[in-house]
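Section 3.1: Structural characterization of target chains.
Under the original work plan, the team committed to producing a structural model for every single-chain target entering the pipeline before any wet-lab resources were allocated. The record below documents one such target. The sequence was received from the expression subgroup and is listed exactly as submitted; it comprises 387 residues.
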Amino acid sequence: MSNPKTVPCQYRTGRTLGSGTYAVVKEAVQITTGQYYACKVINKKLMEGREHMVRNEIAVLKKVSQGHRNIVTLHDYFETAHNLYLIFDLCSGGELFDRICAKGNYYEQDAADLLRTIMEAVQYIHECGIVHRDLKPENLIFRSKAEDADIMIADFGLSRVMDDKTLTMLTEVCGTPGYMAPEIFKKTGHGKPVDVWAMGVITYFLLCGYTPFDRDTQQQEMEAIIRGDYKFEPAEYWNPVSENARDFVRSCLTIDPRKRPTAADALKHPWLAETKKQGVSDPTTATGQADLLPTFQKAFNAKKTFRKAVLGVMASRRMATTFGANKDKAAALPFDLDALKKNAESEQIDEKRTVTYAHIDDPSSPRNPIDELKSKPLTSPGRAPAS
């Protein structure tokens, strides 16, 4: 294998677009083409002992990138002395939450159309031998602000390549609590069915504006998930929703993963498969179907402030899980995470900076990033001049 080469950087980073669990996302422009991308910036110190997370994310995305229009594509990977950089499609259309709330109206058929598109992408991921493990509305983003923009599945940081021939089952506890399947909490082994469960939770949310296992504490939420304890209530939120939609939710939220439908099975359910308009009739609306937006916004706004606080806690807990048995580092995480992410965010790259670089799709590249990640720790310093 050729030695890694240090080359001039082909990108210039700009404004910060957002922050994930262990990375910040910045805008980046490809210097020679002027093409804009999203750049995931990861502090190497934050990944010490967890290099497998980035290695795994690249491995997953190499299997699914450019294979489906509703999956965010990984274009490049490179590193500097301090940070790792992953270059993705720039999706500027916003999150699913905001998109729905910005609409003038929102019907059950809209939800069914969205869910069908997402489930088709999930089916594709599963056919590629991938389980996502962190499907949730925050990871469903739109490619652009156009009304007909594609919805995209993003954030494959917790995904795994699964070999069906060996029937390998995953056992670590990971994901976002409210969307995690019972078998994850039970530690009985899990696989692709956890994504179908998460799709059931997402569907429930898209129909009423809150999640089915919402409880006062995370412990109560976990116990409710294990029992499959949820209801279609209060009535004011569910009266406008059809029995067909409720049956689809029930099928996805089957406690036993062996009896849960596959993504392919879910696409055959009448709620997704039928082309006729879904929903409860309401002659007062332009479509003749009940408008879900008033109750959706009411429920969503009531949880908005609470959700922001909870997401911060969940992010810390999710990262803490990756520390494994190193309890000292796990305990220190809440104090270090923000500082390390700010350090990653502060580094600017442009054509004056040299980086250790590989193009994911170029077979003539001096190295394959997957092989390189296996051959040396990600925390080893590259050569990059000072800014």
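The longest strand covers residues 11-19.
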